[in-house]
């Protein structure tokens, strides 16, 4: 299994994305080419080990399977995740991997949730991917922290009622706030102009001290 490519009429799995061989396929190769004399030498394609492996397996009746998922999304990718996700790299896809049997789809629609490998990932990015995959907690996963109500949660209706009783007395009837009491509460807060003025003064004083 791997990313399917075609070269000289042979369907094979490209080594650019890595490939997976079954134990049975490995045994067939070992039994037929079990010595240096049994291995077919080729000066023309000596650097195309993935092509030659696909060619020899096809001669043994083992053909490359379509490794995409049921929606046609790739599992073995010939580019890095950032190249596949970021816009503007279509010219690279067409220029550097013309043997691909299936087109490279840019963006999330081209990614299978069961992806196996990416080509050209730098060493330091391996540590980043490990951190993101195995150490970062996703908030909305199975009702995670982001969806849990705070233990000190108070409905908004209770917040203003608590403020009124704190300001006008614990026994105050919040269902009958008079106009006079409303203005008393309003006086406890600065009007917008006064708030902006105080904020500006605090900023200027902090700037002068620094």
Description of the molecule:
- This protein has 3 domains: 1-122, no CATH class; 137-175, no CATH class; 178-210.
- The strands form 2 sheets. Strands 1-2 form a two-stranded antiparallel ribbon. Strands 3-4 form a two-stranded parallel sheet.
- The longest helix is centred in the last third of the chain and has 18 residues, at 192-209.
- The protein starts with a strand and ends with a helix.
- It is 40% helix and 6% strand.
- The chain has helices at residues 23-32, 49-59, 81-85, 90-96, 123-134, 156-168, 179-187, 192-209, and strands at residues 4-7, 10-13, 76-77, 117-118.
- The protein is elongated.
- One of its GO terms (molecular function) is glycoprotein-N-acetylgalactosamine 3-beta-galactosyltransferase activity.
- Keywords: Glycosyltransferase, Membrane, Signal-anchor, Transferase, Transmembrane, Transmembrane helix.
- One of its GO terms (cellular component) is membrane.
- It comes from Lygus hesperus.
Query: Biggest sheet: strands side by side, in what order?
Result: 1-2
Q: Level of helix content?
A: 40-55%
List low-pLDDT spans: none
Structural class: mainly alpha
| Order of H and E elements | EEHHEHHEHHHH
Major β-sheet annotation:
2 strands, antiparallel
What oligomeric state do these chains adopt? single chain
Radius of gyration of CA atoms, rounded to a whole number: 33 Å
Q: What is the rounded distance between the termini?
A: 63 Å
Mean pLDDT: 79
Shape: elongated
Number of helices: 8
Work out the strand percent.
5-15%
Number of self-contained structural domains: 3
InterPro entries: C1GALT1/C1GALT1_chp1
Membrane topology: Single-pass type II membrane protein
Organism: Lygus hesperus
GO molecular function: glycoprotein-N-acetylgalactosamine 3-beta-galactosyltransferase activity
